[in-house]
Write a structure and sequence with these properties.
Structural class: mainly alpha
Family: Belongs to the heme oxygenase family.
Number of strands: 0
CATH superfamily: Heme oxygenase-like
CATH topology: Heme Oxygenase, Chain A
Number of helices: 15
CATH architecture: Up-down Bundle
Main location: endoplasmic reticulum
EC number: 1.14.14.18
Oligomer: single chain
Radius of gyration: 20 Å
Bound molecules: protoporphyrin IX containing FE
Number of domains: 1
GO molecular function: heme binding; heme oxygenase (decyclizing) activity; metal ion binding
CATH class: Mainly Alpha
Shape: globular
Subcellular location: Endoplasmic reticulum
Helix content: 55-70%
Distance between the termini: 20 Å
Strand content: under 5%
């Protein structure tokens, strides 16, 4: 579906795509080092973490995609408007239905930080559509980069069957994430921005990362609160693991010993990256119905 022929462009220091990468470098590292993302990199994400993450992502993408749709003709949005290739909302809804059932809308919970993020997206959708590129970049290019790897880790950690509750990570309209990222960067660079607006976009990108970091931190806080509440309610570990599906999943993931070669250094070398996972399972892998070939690994990183 990548209809545009990708022209190889030489990036210069003044290109928006380069500047945005430079100004967000430090907060990217901080985002990677949040407890939630570290759990991902260790390969020990839990079902509770993933479900809560999906709830927040749903709210965020709903607001982001509404803002992009309603400003799709704006000169700063039109070049980076790729709903067919990138839109995540529908996938998130299906994933949520998979985990929470048909009445998932009544069940989803989001922390205060997610509400702040959503508020900001709605506000700029109304008042500063030229800043939307910063938010679209932060989420979509992130999803097309580390996100692919996170999909595989989620599948492996939770022992999910191919595609089950994992549609968020899959981009059927993007055959090559790296080529698509190149196209996206060249489109970003074609946006005409005066000095002040450009500065505004760069500041907004840093803010977008900050908002994501706050969401991850708040999610983690919510999880520890949920855990301590559950602990005080539950009389014994045996009962806990046999009476609830939610807690059964925690029990399963607790038995996983996972070592991942997703060390930050490796991921940032721009070279071919493999994930190698050693597991100690109480059950054989097949019982978890694992199909590890569902997500394609980019062969090279741009
Ligand atoms: C486990 C956590 C993460 C890992 C391992 C990771 C890894 C990566 C990798 C390997 C790249 C490609 C780097 C390159 O092409 O130079 C990348 C790019 C990117 N990531 Fe992450 N990432 C993580 C979390 C995040 C988060 C939480 C966000 C934002 C919410 C994010 C946003 C981005 C963006 C926007 C890019 C594109 C950079 C560019 O090409 O300009 N990442 N990430």
């Amino acid at each position: 579906m990548e209809t545009q022929k990708i022209i190889s462009v030489e990036l210069t220091d003044s290109d928006l795509s380069e500047q945005i990468k430079v100004v967000t470098k430090d907060c990217h590292v901080r985002a990677e080092n949040t407890e939630l993302m570290l759990a991902y990199q260790r390969g020990d994400i839990t079902m509770e973490q993933y479900k809560l993450l999906l709830c927040s992502l749903h709210e965020i993408y709903q607001a982001l995609e509404e803002a992009l749709d309603s400003n799709s003709n704006h000169s700063c949005v039109a070049p980076i408007y790729f709903p067919l290739e990138l839109a995540r909302l529908e996938s998130l809804e299906k994933d949520l239905e998979h985990f929470y059932g048909h009445n998932w809308r009544e069940k989803i919970v989001v922390p205060a930080a997610t509400k702040r993020y959503v508020h900001r997206l709605r506000q700029i959708g109304k008042d500063n559509p030229e800043y939307l590129v910063a938010h679209a970049y932060t989420r979509y290019l992130g999803d097309l980069s580390g996100g692919t790897v996170l999909g595989r880790i989620t599948q492996k950690s939770l022992g999910l069957k191919s595609g089950e509750g994992l549609l968020f990570f899959s981009f059927p309209g993007v055959s090559s994430p790296n080529r698509f990222k190149q196209l996206y960067r060249s489109r970003m660079n074609s946006i005409e921005l005066n000095h002040e607006d450009r500065k505004g976009v760069l500041d907004e990108a840093v803010r977008a990362f900050e908002l994501n970091i706050q969401v991850f931190d708040d999610l983690q806080k919510m999880l520890s609160e949920m855990k301590s509440e559950t602990k005080s309610d539950m009389p014994s570990k045996m009962e806990r693991e046999s009476t609830s599906e939610k807690l059964h999943m925690t029990g399963c993931t607790r038995h996983l010993t996972t070592h991942s070669k997703l060390a930050q250094g490796e991921l940032h070398t721009h070279t071919h990256t493999h994930t190698h996972t050693i597991r100690t399972l109480k059950k054989p892998m097949t019982e978890f119905g694992s199909n590890l070939n569902n997500f394609s690994f980019p062969q090279e990183r741009s």
